[in-house]
Amino acid sequence: MKEILVNYMKRFSDMSETELDAIASNVPIATYKKGTVLLHQGDVPDKCYFILKGCIRKYTVDASGKETTFNFYTEEQSVTIFNHHSADKASNFSLNCLEDCVLVVGDLSTEQEAYDTNPALEAMTRKMIEGDIGAMHDEYAAFISSTPEERYKALLEQRPELIDRVPKYQLASFLGITPESLSRIKKRLGSPL
What we know:
- The protein is an alpha+beta fold.
- The protein has a domain at 2-114: Jelly Rolls (Sandwich).
- It is 44% helix and 21% strand.
- The strands form two sheets. It has a four-stranded antiparallel beta sheet, with helices on one face. A four-stranded antiparallel beta sheet has the order 2-7-4-5.
- Helix 3 (111-117) packs across helix 4 (119-144).
- Keywords: Activator.
C-alpha cells in the first residue's frame, strides 16, 4: 500500500525514489472499520489522514439534529481539519469511515518536528495543501454558481465512483438538495442512482 503514497508524493516533489521510499516507510498506517468516527464535531483534531483505501465523510450535525455532508474523501486524498483560526480549536466537523479504510495517520503535534528533520517534506506538504485548497476553492465556486441538476451532472463526470459508494441521502446532502430532489433529477436524466 505504501507504493500508493510514494506515487502520490512524486507529483509534489523532486525527491528521489529512495528518499520518498524512506519517508513512506516511516509513516504509520492504520486500518479502521466501516462506521468508525475518526473525529467528533466539537473535539480538537490531533490527527491528519491520507487515504490509501476507503471512503471518509466530512459532515456536521446542527442543533436540531440535521446532518449536512460537506465532502467525501477517497483514495489518494488527504483529510485534515484546519481550525487554528478558532479560539477553542474545536472542530466544526465530524469525520466518519463509510467503508473499511486503510489510512496513513499523521500526528499533528509532531508535524513541526517531522518538518525540522526533513525540510523537503515541509515543501512537499505545502504543495499538497496548496493543491487541495485550490481545488476546494474551484469546487465551492462551481457549487454556488450551479443548479442542483448541474451539480449532479458534475458529480457524475468528476466523481462517479461516489454513486455506488455512499448512501443516497448523504449524496443528496452533499449536493445541497433533498433525497426526493435527487430522485427527480435522476429520473429526468435517466441516470442510474
